Amino acid sequence: MSVTLRxxxxxxxxxxxxxxxxxxxxxxxAPGVEVRWEQRSLQSFADQALEDLVEQYDxxxxxxxxxxxxxxxxxxxxxxxxxxxxxxxLLQAQSVGASHxxxxxxxxxxxxATDAAAQVAAYRPDLxxxxxxxxxxxxxLAEQGRVLWPYKPVDAFSSLVTVAAGYGEEAMRAPGCxxxxxxxxxxxxxxxxxxxxxxxxxxxxxxxxxxxxLSTSDRYAYxxxxxxxxxxxRGGFRPHRLRYIDIPASRRxxxxxxxxxxxxxxxxxxxxxxxxxxxxxWLDSAAxxxxxxxxxxxQPGNAVAWESERTNADSLDFxxxxxxxxxxxxxxPRFARYIELQNALSEHVTDALVGRLTDDxxxxxxxxxxxxxxxLT
Length: 377
Hints:
- By secondary structure, the protein is an alpha+beta fold.
- The protein folds into two domains: about 5-115 and about 260-315, Periplasmic binding protein-like II (D-Maltodextrin-Binding Protein, domain 2, 3-Layer(aba) Sandwich); about 120-260 and about 335-375, D-Maltodextrin-Binding Protein, domain 2, CATH 3.40.190.10.
- About 45% of the residues lie in helices and about 10% in strands.
- It is built from 16 helices and ten strands.
- The strands form three sheets. The protein has a five-stranded mixed beta sheet with strand order 2-1-3-10-6, sandwiched between helices. It has a three-stranded antiparallel beta sheet with strand order 8-7-9. It has a two-stranded antiparallel ribbon with strand order 4-5.
- It comes from Microbacterium telephonicum.
- InterPro entries: SBP (IPR006059).
- This is Carbohydrate ABC transporter substrate-binding protein (CUT1 family).
- It holds the Pfam family SBP_bac_8.
């Protein structure tokens, strides 16, 4: 008897092409299982509630901050203790930085790190032979009008967290406090300087729009903070290739970048749990991640693919060039209401960057959000 699994991912070659190609290959591994993938927007991927999705889909590609809520509300199937524990241990050993651990919560594993990402830097090697490696160099290049930076609310929020952590203070680690006054002021001073030097429309851009602009026009050459997309580092994806590198060095070197990425999870409502779980583990295995998943446009979450000569040769050393940033990345707080906090507070960061809020007003709103949504003790 054949089984059909429905999956939902996000609308991009990295999100959809990768799993669609993998699903076709899986028919040779499990001829009786068909996996049908559908797409949703990047914004929906970031903030759409899972309650409806788990009723419709067996497999979900999700952002790891959703894991605590999903685990505590019984939305996802546990992936530990179901016959794959040896594979689970291997995937943990093959994690890129903390990626694998972000899909664990309350003693259970609720997803697998299919895709690894963090805020990194990108540039056009044909236009900029030597990119800046620290923030002083970034500002100098921005003063020449050659820099882009996406700072729509969620990306501005991410950049604030990244810069503050790089300077030495991680956000949202103490009850009722987003950042101390000095740490917030220092990070916002840098980001305001950057915002004044990039085009005004960058306040509404996301990393995909930025990468598209960099790779299709010769006007701009560099971006200091955007989530990496290896698609843009490969030949033929856009007119020009981007090289991705570690974030600009700060006091802590290239540590502190906000960890992103995506993982595959299985709906607790699935009527084909064993088949869905088998597919999830197959998808995250080193051979698949380095092979058909990458070739389909994916950005692997498995370190074997990050260390591969083949994937690095194909992508202008995307993986080697950003690995230090991933290994030292900042992990967002692990609480069920974190997504509510991020959605509510992000717009305040962009407002402060364009002069609608002072630092004191911004800090008050951010602290209020931590007090309201995070169960820090």
